[in-house]
Design goal:
The chain is an alpha+beta fold. It has 21 helices and 21 strands. 36% of the residues lie in helices and 18% in strands. The model has no long low-confidence stretch (mean pLDDT 95).
């Protein structure tokens, strides 16, 4: 039998002997990537709101405090467990391409030449067609807040948005993490007069650590949503401001595009891993590939190989490369494309893929780069057993960089995440992008025991799988599993970046197996920011998982 103490001892060494700080709750739990947002959602639980209410509050607050990773004019994927009927639901609130958006339109807007700008025709081209409202798609997150609150919540939407409105109008203190993000994004933000007006001081400077950022126009936009519900964003004054700004600055979103937007309830996907049920969001998210990766790994005895040994990490890397190689070929909008996930979810197909893995040598699975580290994740649990695991984003860091004048909102850059060449994820009117989001809930004996997810673009599936392996195979508690050093597969050939808390000898051994190992700092948000909640099956108490890599905080309700 594997010694369960061994992984904990190794992790303690990796972390320099510093212990994890656990956050427990008895009647609820919240975790997010901003302390003020976590506190606001915890207060909603204290006041009798359910997990869905608190998640809406949390999402709105994150949209005010974390423009680097989320925004009101962004989109989101929501995985909900309802304890009463014991059912799972997936709400797809992804952005949709405006009716006028076509590959040719973007080629003309950005003056692209196929011979000179070949990379710009692929998904997520570095440094190309990523700035300005021309990249924007019809936002989905406000529709999600309204749908969740109206259908599944207990408190009025206006109450749920109060904390976000207060944070916008009274101000949020800029912390070190956000200040650093602003500094790095200067080339993306300052070219736009509307962005300077919304975020900069009268002297034209972006806020620094310890300063207060007040956003009156964003507060007013939230107030219209609170007062009028869906119509307060998708028609009326806010819609008029979006449409007029786009008309004047190269965007193509119309009133008709906004009025037609719908958040869609979609089926969840189910799999299993070592006796646990794995429930994930379905297309157009990438939840299926979490199940696929775990199916491949299930045939290896990772526990016997040992925690963070070269042999175990090699298999983790190789299995994850296989499911990432499949992801783009199958990804697209299920409203427009037939998507057959049978092979992805099938354990027999996973066995076939597993047999292609060598235990001694890394194998290339393509040339595609897997760069990117954007997005935010939130998790909430209440006393009744309801759970929400949701990924909310604005696309890339700070979206397209351009604020819609009069609204305070940075617009998303979702067309950047789609291709201009034909394929399942091509820009097309009404289509949603295929994104790496993977909200996940794990159940044992028919009851949820863990909810988690991560930001990180094409790294999300990687970080969710690594965290689950830490919990299931190595017996780490959720907080320790999140704090454990991670790797990020940077391309499908052989490049993998690893936090240097992993033993240097292990990293050398991986390099000898053919992995091109890149050393990362001891702690870095380049490997995501996992948020999660685990439920003690014996006591029912809740352990909050928060990621120190991304300014996260969990709060327990007692």
């Amino acid at each position: 039998m594997t010694d369960r103490k061994a992984p904990a001892c190794t992790l303690a060494a990796e972390n320099g002997g510093f212990p994890s700080v656990q956050v427990w709750g008895t009647r609820g739990m919240v975790s997010s990537m901003h302390p003020a947002a976590t506190a606001a959602a915890a207060q909603v639980l204290h006041e009798g709101g359910n997990a869905i209410d608190a998640a809406v509050t949390l999402g709105a607050a994150i949209a005010v405090t974390s423009h680097d990773w989320a925004g009101m004019a962004g989109d989101s994927a929501w995985l909900v467990y309802l304890a009463g009927p014991r059912e799972y639901r997936h709400l797809d609130a992804y952005a949709t391409c405006p009716a006028a958006t076509t590959p040719q339109l973007l080629v003309e807007r950005f003056r692209l030449d196929r011979r000179r700008d070949a990379a710009a025709f692929r998904e997520e081209p570095p440094g190309q067609r990523h700035m300005g409202v021309a990249t924007g798609m019809v936002p989905g997150t406000p529709a999600a807040w309204c749908e969740l609150a109206g259908r599944l919540g207990r408190l009025p939407l206006a109450r749920l948005l109060e904390p976000a409105i207060a944070l916008a109008e009274e101000g949020v203190v800029v912390n070190r993490y956000f200040a650093g993000a602003l500094e790095r994004a200067v080339p993306k933000l300052v070219p736009f007069a509307s962005t300077r007006e919304a975020l900069c001081s009268p002297g034209g400077e972006l806020p620094r650590e310890g300063e207060t950022l007040r956003q009156a126009e964003l507060g007013a936009t939230l107030r219209r949503l609170a007062r009028h519900g869906r119509a307060g964003f998708y028609s009326g004054e806010t819609a008029a401001l979006i449409v007029e700004y786009c008309r004047r600055h190269g965007g193509v979103i119309t009133r008709e595009d906004l009025a037609a937007y719908e958040a869609r309830w979609r089926p969840v996907l189910r799999g299993s891993y070592r006796g646990r049920e794995i429930v994930v969001s379905g297309p157009p998210t990438s939840g299926a590939h979490v199940i696929q990766g775990l199916n491949i790994l299930e045939g290896f005895d990772l526990a016997a190989l040992g925690y963070h040994t070269a042999a175990a990490l090699h298999l983790l890397i190789e299995a994850t490369k296989l499911c990432l190689a499949d992801r783009r070929a199958l990804g697209g909008d299920p409203d427009f494309l037939p998507i057959d996930l049978g092979a992805v979810l099938c354990k027999e197909e996973a066995r076939r893929l597993r047999e292609t893995i060598s235990g001694e040598r890394a194998a290339p699975r393509g040339k595609r780069s897997l760069a990117g580290a954007s997005t935010t994740h939130i998790v909430v649990a209440d006393a009744e057993g309801n759970l929400v695991s949701a990924t909310q984003t604005i696309g890339s860091a700070f979206g397209c960089g351009e604020v819609i004048s009069g609204t305070g909102m940075l617009m998303n850059d979702r067309t950047w995440w789609m291709a201009l060449d034909q394929g399942p994820n091509v820009v097309a009117p009404g289509h949603r992008a295929n994104i790496g989001h993977a909200p996940t809930i794990v159940a044992a004996d028919g009851r949820p025991c863990l909810a988690l997810g991560s930001p990180g673009g094409l790294g999300i599936v990687q970080y969710v799988i690594q965290t689950l392996v830490n919990v299931v195979d190595y017996g780490l508690d959720l907080q320790s599993a999140i704090e454990a050093p991670r790797f990020k597969i940077e391309d499908l050939a052989s490049r993998v970046a690893i936090e240097r808390r992993v033993d240097a000898g292990v990293r050398r051994a991986l390099a000898a197996m053919g992995h091109r190992v890149e050393e990362l700092p001891e702690w870095t948000d380049r490997v995501g920011g996992v948020e999660g909640i685990s439920i003690d099956r014996r006591t029912g108490n809740l352990l909050g998982g928060y990621d120190p890599r991304r300014n996260s905080l969990a709060a327990g309700i007692h």
